[in-house]
Design goal:
The complex is a heterodimer of chains A (114) and B (114). By secondary structure, chain A is mainly β. Chain A contains no helices and 11 strands. Classes of the chains: A mainly beta (114), B mainly beta (114).
């Protein structure tokens, strides 16, 4: 069974640009969550999608947005990039967000802002 | 406001001995707790979880203990092996309006010495 797939693995952008990251969940998983990992900050929750609807949102500015498609694939967009947005962005999927079950992570997209 | 805390940034243990990783939380709404292991350049891998209705869950060499009154959980690895060297994250979950939101600790880097 294929795991969570994130593309691209690495990305370099400059300040002011925008970026779109992609996540394909495990087959059959309908919930997709996004996290940001920076040194010293651990994993910070960005948002969670289920049935193409954002169900939960973390404390990030509006420059961070996402969406989910009918096949459960998800994209995350960051506009007007800042140096502080350099981080590892992780996507996780689970079958049903309403039940206590583990989320399974992809290997992330490493975003570097110059 | 750090709702989940791992107070030890690093831990060094001799191969074959027991590794004990600790985690504290503050929010009484959390009802599901997880441990993840992370290698460099990979996403977190789910290890073991525990529901708040239990106080212990065991899976092979890994055991998680939950003390609800102290709002404390721990992960025991016995015996420790060199391949266990990684960063370990604890996470706590609360289901709000049908959506599960994970809150992660800062991580503990475990090093197993031969």
């Amino acid at each position: 069974k294929a795991g969570v797939t994130q593309t691209p693995r690495y990305l370099i952008k400059t300040r002011g640009q925008q970026v779109t990251l992609s996540c394909s969940p495990i087959s059959g998983h309908r919930s997709v969550s996004w996290y940001q990992q920076t040194p010293g900050q651990g994993l910070q929750f960005l948002f969670e999608y289920f049935s193409e609807t954002q169900r939960n949102k973390g404390n990030f500015p509006g420059r961070f947005s996402g969406r989910q498609f009918s096949n459960s694939r998800s994209e995350m967009n960051v506009s007007t990039l800042e140096l502080g947005d350099s981080a590892l962005y992780l996507c996780a999927s689970s079958p049903d967000p309403g039940r206590n079950q583990p989320q399974h992570f992809g290997d992330g997209t490493r975003l570097s802002i110059l | 406001d750090q709702q989940v805390k791992q107070n030890s940034p690093s831990l060094s243990v001799q191969e074959g001995r027991i590794s004990i990783l600790n985690c504290d939380y503050t929010n009484s709404m959390f009802d599901y707790f997880l441990w993840y292991k992370k290698y460099p350049a990979e996403g977190p891998t789910f290890l073991i979880s525990i529901s708040s209705i239990k106080d212990k869950n065991e899976d092979g060499r890994f055991t998680v203990f939950l003390n609800k009154s102290a709002k404390h959980l721990s992960l025991h690895i016995v015996p420790s092996q060199p391949g266990d060297s990684a960063v370990y994250f604890c996470a706590a979950s609360a289901t709000i309006q049908g959506a599960q939101k994970l809150v992660f600790g800062q991580g503990t880097r475990l090093t197993i010495n031969p």
